[in-house]
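Lab notebook, design round three. We kept the backbone fixed and only want residue identities now. Task for the bench partner: fill in a sequence for the structure below.
Input structure tokens:
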């Protein structure tokens, strides 16, 4: 079923969580709740913010606490106009929390779905603006160093439309550094665990190979493909089919999907979507410069006003402002970038994978990663995609049969 609208934020009583006055509960995930809050001061001073508050039962788990602290350490190092800002981290009454800037706007996945439903495709100009902003954010994050000068070696690992936020002022920000790989947490990266959303994973990520910052550029290429063509690239009807499509990397050129597509922009996107990392752009800065040259050649100015007008037109705020508030929520569904599938995609037959899909880090409370680390004001679909139990059970049965066979042969 197509879920275009997020649950209406739930008002709460005028209560305090430490120094933060809680105004609304925006979303409730499996491991944390998201609140709109304010920091109040004398003479009527009030600063809105978003609080991600971890549930007490998870705050007491050592592995989870370490991951949440890692998230806070990484987020504290990142200050960029195109990255959602985290400005506080702590523990109150046994509950860990992060405090983040509050942004009125929408996630790009909802913008795409509503634009398609309204027969108002975003087109190439908006995609280029999104690409430049996110590339700038990634260039900054990829080159960030620790205070002692040690390279952070940050890889976002979850660049998806759900984590690209567009404010009502036309400002684009990248969110969700909750499953980031960096020098802060590399020693605690779980072997054999794949993190992220299948439809936006690079080939090396979905097959659990060693990856670097160029994996993020591949994911951004998928985002730009879908934003500029209005067509899903690798998302299919089932998890297994999505994994097969993402692994095979058979990309239909944008010009065959959208007649009149600019050849230079097609070249940029196809280079991002090269299967081998060495064939892609090697840095996000190189990508941003290429996109800027293309925009200048088209005599396009920055599309901030156009984006602002698009968001306010697609999501008119009601009297309470609830439709103008959104967030990339903690515990958002892995494996599904844009839930609901409103943006059409080619349902070409694909073989069923013979291998079970990669296990995402959501199977055990002690191993779950704080997904969507940087929630802001963008509505969320908290539904989980169906877990591929048939595939997992089939693989398990095969393994047991093999073990019994060798047991009887040896004995």
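Proposed sequence:
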């Amino acid at each position: 079923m197509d879920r275009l609208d997020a649950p209406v934020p739930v008002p709460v009583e005028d209560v305090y969580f430490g120094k933060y006055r809680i105004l609304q509960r925006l979303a409730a995930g499996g491991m944390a709740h998201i609140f709109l809050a304010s920091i109040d001061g004398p003479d009527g001073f009030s600063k809105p913010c978003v609080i991600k508050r971890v549930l007490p039962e998870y705050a007491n788990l050592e592995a989870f606490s370490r991951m949440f602290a890692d998230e806070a350490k990484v987020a504290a190092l990142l200050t960029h106009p195109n990255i959602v800002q985290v400005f506080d981290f702590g523990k109150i009454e046994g509950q860990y929390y992060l405090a983040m800037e509050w942004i009125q706007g929408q996630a790009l996945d909802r913008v795409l779905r509503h634009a398609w439903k309204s027969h108002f495709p975003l087109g190439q100009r908006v995609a280029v603006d999104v690409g430049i902003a996110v590339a700038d954010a990634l260039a900054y994050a990829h080159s960030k160093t620790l205070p002692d000068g040690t390279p952070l070696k940050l890889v976002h690992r979850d660049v998806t439309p759900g984590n690209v936020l567009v404010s009502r002022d036309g400002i684009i920000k990248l969110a969700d550094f909750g499953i980031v790989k960096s020098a802060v947490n590399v020693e605690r990266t779980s072997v054999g665990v794949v993190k992220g959303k299948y439809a936006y994973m690079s080939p090396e990520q979905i097959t659990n190979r060693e990856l670097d910052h160029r994996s993020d550029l591949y994911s951004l290429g998928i985002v730009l493909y879908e934003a500029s063509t209005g067509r899903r690239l690798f998302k299919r009807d089932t998890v297994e089919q999505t994994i097969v499509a993402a692994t095979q990397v058979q990309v239909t050129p944008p010009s065959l999907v959208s007649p009149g597509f600019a050849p230079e922009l097609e070249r940029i996107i196809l280079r991002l979507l090269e299967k081998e990392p060495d064939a892609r752009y090697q840095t996000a800065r190189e990508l941003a410069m290429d996109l800027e040259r293309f925009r200048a050649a088209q005599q396009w100015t920055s599309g901030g006003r156009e984006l602002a007008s698009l968001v306010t037109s697609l999501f008119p705020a009601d009297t309470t402002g609830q439709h103008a508030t959104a967030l990339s929520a903690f515990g958002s569904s892995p494996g599904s970038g844009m839930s609901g599938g409103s943006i059409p995609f080619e349902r070409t037959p694909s073989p069923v994978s013979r291998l079970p899909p990669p296990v995402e880090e959501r199977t055990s409370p002690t191993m779950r990663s704080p997904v969507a680390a940087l929630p802001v004001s963008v509505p969320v679909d908290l539904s989980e995609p169906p877990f591929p139990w048939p595939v997992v059970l089939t693989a398990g049965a095969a393994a047991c049969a093999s073990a019994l066979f060798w047991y009887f042969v040896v004995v």
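Keep this in mind before ordering anything: Confidence is low (pLDDT under 50) at residues 1-8, 186-195, 318-388.
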